[in-house]
Amino acid sequence: MPAFAGLVVGIGLVGALLLAVVLVRNTDEFLPWALVCLGVAYTVSLFVHGSAVDTGAPLVAAGMLLCGELAAWSLDARHAIAAEREVVLRRALALAALTLAGLGAAAAVIAFAASSFGGGLGWTVLGAVAAVAVVGLAAQLVRRTA
Questions:
Q1: Considering just the CA atoms, what is the radius of gyration of the chain in Å?
Q2: Alpha carbons 59 and 99: distance in angstroms, whole number
Q3: What is the pLDDT of residues 36-80, one digit of tens each?
Q4: Residue among 88, 46, 85, 40 at smallest CA distance from 64
């Protein structure tokens, strides 16, 4: 297991460096790759530690969502045209609502997976429906703010 620690740290460092490049150079081309590297580092660490359900996964997911959105927002804020206060407030509220909804849905899925009666086709379908509901909520929030 310690042999994979270097791999996880290396992939995580690449992701962090790409995120730093995005923020310092004001370029959004590497933002998706930074998030992918961070997600891969987390995924590799999960595989290395075994197949148990990670109860911290909802927090990691919410953190990665916030990281990507706040980085994109930081890039948007550097334009010469300043956004109106109401636009900024609505964007912040939409981001907060999306993050909380995603956190809640992910926590529910993890709770069902970790429970003694979890598993089976019914729970898989329920998890898929929850994921689709979160995406639908995100689409609704985007439409309302647009």
A1: 18
A2: 10
A3: 999 999 988 888 877 677 788 889 989 999 999 999 989 888 877
A4: 40
